[in-house]
Model the fold of this input.
Amino acid sequence: MRRKIVAGNWKMNKSFQDAEELVAEIADKLEALGQAREEVVLCPPFVYLEMATDIAQESVFSVGAQNMNDHDEGAFTGEVSGVMLESMDVEYCIIGHSERRKYYKEDHELLARKVDAALRHGIRPIFCCGELLPERESGKHFEVVRKQLEESLFHLDTAGLSEAVIAYEPVWAIGTGVNASPAEAQEMHAYIRGLIAVKYGSDLASETSILYGGSCNASNARELFAQPDVDGGLIGGASLKADEFIRIVTSF
Ligand code: PGA
Done:
């Protein structure tokens, strides 16, 4: 189902105490708003997932991980599997974030296996795609995003893809304070939806949630979310303060 979603990607931030305070504050504010029409997803670091899912049980938000291993178990020191996430009631997992692609050399093939691993365990992948600045400047941004989707997501069958959420995150916009303009975001989101329509049909295309990420904050979310093909946001820096995050959640 095409849902409006605002997901907070906390990345590697916050002590346990600060994280617990932030989750509790967000839960309180969501409760004060009443039943949210939008789906709110918090993606804290692995070590805080249990704390977050405990609080989520009494609240209206969902919990996601920021990464996962493509194997279900075994000798992979330091890694976290879909089996583990599923057993902790984690509902989403960010897969293919540009920071994972860049710093941990995650390639198309690995990301396709991670997507499969998530789905094996009933975890909805939030699959990230997006071009680098030189790729946009040379007019290759559509091609880059198409390849990312074709190589790591479009191997799924209809049932698999219907569980996925796509996040378009132009790399030049992440953490830079320079967001894609609403027109640039809309253009790419419409392109992505068109690719889904060609491969899976227009029904599934119109039901897929496509989020925008990259310097999305309380000042620009309303205009971005007003675009017809922008179904919400994947929020980094601006998800670390409860007030700002809630202002984004209420920006539809
Ligand atoms: P940002 O990060 O909102 O801090 O730009 C977004 C993301 O990396 O998901």
